Amino acid sequence: MRVTQSMITRNLVSNILESRKNMSDLEQTMATGKKIQKSSDDPVKFTMATRYRKTIKLNEMYLKNIVDARSWVSMTSGIVDDLYEHSLSAKEIALQAADASLNADIRENLTGKLDAIVDEMVSLLNTQYLGKYLFGGTKTKEEIPFSYDGSTISYNGDDGAITRRIAEGYDMTVNVPGSTFTDMGLIEKLIELRDALESNDTEAIRSSMAAIETNCNELLAVNSRLGSLKSQLTMTENRLEVSNTNLNSFISDLEDADLAEVITQYNAEELAYNAALQATANSFNLSILDYL
Amino acid sequence: MMNVSQNTVSESGSSSNQYIADAVKEINFPFGLPGFEHLHRFSLEEIPNTPAFYFLRAVEQPLITLVVLDLRFFKLETPLQIPERDMRKLGIEVPDDMAKLTVIKIDKNSGRLTANIKAPILVNLKKKKGMQIILDDPALSTEYPLLQEK
Fold first, then answer.
1. Rounded to an integer, what distance in angstroms lies between the CA atom of residue B145 and that of residue A138?
2. A128-129 and B26-28 as β-strands: parallel, antiparallel, unpaired?
3. How many angstroms separate the CA of residue B127 from the nearest CA in chain A?
4. Is A256 touching B (CB cutoff 8 A)?
5. Does the distance separating the beta carbons of B142 and A245 come in below 8 Å?
6. I want to staple B129 with a disulfide (CB 3.0 to 4.6 A). Which of A144, A263, B89, B124 is the partner?
7. Is the entire prediction scored with pTM above 0.80?
8. CA angle, A253 as apex, B86 and A55 as ends, to 5°?
């Protein structure tokens, strides 16, 4: 049989390929200190490791969503806090203004203060976070959620929920739509108060004051809901992190050729000169070192 | 270490000196383990020649096995403070009835062993009931090296 150039080449190539494969196995063993890098050597383990890797990936995605959800919720609750403070100030103004004997100058001064509060609150309601309006419902980009022309306020958003999936089958609503505030008449009641102030209508001032007080309580309720969302997020985050640690430990151990052997070696070689592992309760003089 | 607050139980001198596997062969986890919520029964098996290390193996699905270390044999710089409310959940009345296990992982890069001390597994030795808890302390690591570098 004549040895052709192409046969020689073929043999050479296959030899090279073979030796490369061995090299790569060796490299993998050296790199990881493990006997089996590819759990494809054991199809059952491989399938299981693959499945749980997917779960880990999914959990990592949920963890990212939690970070994002937390920013939304925290931003929102910070602003609801500010809205509450401003509403309280408005209530104080109403309280002062309810005194019928006030002269025109003082009333005008209070009206000015109230105007400033309304402006400030409208601008809070139009806050953007990462380029999105917090209080526009699902209309986060199109147009400014609250427009105010000095006498009437209108809401251009919707009452849609913005959700983040933070766990399997659980979408958390992270926004408070602006309709929550229009429903309670957060700004409207302040405008009514201002009008009452201008016309010096004590009766109307008193009833606005009561309405503003109700709104303050509603704002507190909104914030306590947001607070419980925050603690839910933390609990879910903890649980996901521990899940991933457990799953990683499991996969890591699963893929190790002989874990018991590793631990035994670990005991013998490492523990012998290191006292990190030892009986914590000396009272019964039991130490891992006794068994080595 | 600061004073031990009243709500926690520290590493007091335990009088039970037996190996946990002598007391408990199987542990019931009413809430499952995070990541393995569907599994509730785990057996505790000694790993030959390695006292204090155990296999925690799902009875229904034996391939699912974690390696755990009995924290009684592992000295931490700061002993773990277990909140009383967690002990109550497991019906633990005295610290002696409680074992603390930590899940062990082989670090992929270094080949060294690390312990998740942030989330120890508590076991009620009497009721053979267990639960993995998550401690608030941000200083606790999920990958605490079993041996500190010298």
1. 47
2. unpaired
3. 23
4. yes
5. yes
6. B124
7. no
8. 70
